[in-house]
From TrEMBL:
Species of origin: Streptomyces abikoensis
Pfam hit, one: Penicillinase_R
Domain of life the protein comes from: Bacteria
InterPro entries found in the cross-reference section: BlaI_family, WH-like_DNA-bd_sf, WH_DNA-bd_sf
Key words, A-Z: DNA-binding, Transcription, Transcription regulation
Family: Belongs to the BlaI transcriptional regulatory family.
Protein name in the entry: BlaI/MecI/CopY family transcriptional regulator
Gene3D superfamilies per the UniProt record, alphabetical: 6.10.140.850, Winged helix-like DNA-binding domain superfamily/Winged helix DNA-binding domain
Amino acid sequence: MVRRLGELEDAVMTRVWEWNRPVTVREVLEDLQQERSIAYTTVMTVMDNLYQKGWLRREAEGRAYRYEAVSNRAAYSAALMNEAWSLSDNPAAALVAFFGMMSAEQREALRDAIRVVQLDGPDETQGAPGR
């Protein structure tokens, strides 16, 4: 089960995803402090929690750690969507409702994604009897 990130977890992960490199608690702290008052130990605890939950991996560097994302934001979003969809008692109706909420740009992105999946998937006509 994928759990939605909390507000501070999301703020930390957003930076890790955007920077796309190993980061220290100090780097994340200094960036977060531009928006809010927050303690080093709070950021350290959040990043340790994200490590324990499997969102971050870490490598020791002296007395500290460098953290990096295990996956990207797209994979996180996809996992959330899949979880929500799997909980529906009527998945087709849930998809219709979801598609109805999409903007024109989101629908175009969906069309592009379907084309990619269809291009990457096996040709369903190969090996079919009578074809």
